[in-house]
Write a structure and sequence with these properties.
Oligomer: single chain
Helix content: 25-40%
Number of strands: 6
Number of helices: 4
Number of domains: 1
Strand order of the largest sheet: 4-3-5-6
Largest sheet: 4 strands, mixed
Length: 152
């Protein structure tokens, strides 16, 4: 194979790779912490600390005003906490029962404007949430799982 053909194939591969990457990124950003931030953080009474601060900062980045906002699909501005009990929303440390719910509740409260969090715990509630997501009745800006794995 000639040098020109090898260069052309390399450039073509890069362009196709960039196009595929660009297409897949239209779904929105993904925060992958690879850890359990909800267990390693807390609420001081006036601010989030450690892992909970990381969650707050991730949400702040997503809810930036346009055009910087990465939330491009139609949404109602809420956060869906999947697998986290609403009863845990008042938790102040990750070691408390419902710590994931407390982490997202306190992070959402620190956003400007503060965001509402809807909690879906248990198989029936989670199935109902996803059914509503598919048929368009649930339109959260951000979905996050019990250990706060974000999806947009």
């Amino acid at each position: 194979m000639t040098l020109a053909k090898r260069v052309f194939r390399h450039v073509l591969f890069m362009l196709v790779g960039c196009w595929i990457t660009t297409v897949s990124l239209h779904a929105g950003p993904v925060v992958i912490g690879g850890d359990d931030l909800d267990y390693h953080g807390s609420w001081s009474g006036s601010s989030n600390l450690a892992g909970w601060k990381y969650i707050e900062n991730a949400l702040k980045g997503m809810f930036q005003p346009p055009p910087a906002s990465c939330l491009t699909r139609p949404n109602d501005g809420t956060i869906a906490a999947i697998g986290a009990p609403a009863s845990g929303a008042t938790a102040t440390t990750g070691s408390m029962i419902g710590g994931a719910a407390g982490a997202v509740a306190h992070a959402a409260a620190m956003l400007t404007p503060p965001r509402s969090v809807n909690y879906y715990e248990g198989a029936a509630a989670i199935n109902t949430f996803f059914t509503g997501l598919v048929n368009g009745t649930n339109r959260p800006a951000v979905d996050c799982g019990s250990s706060l794995r974000f999806r947009w």
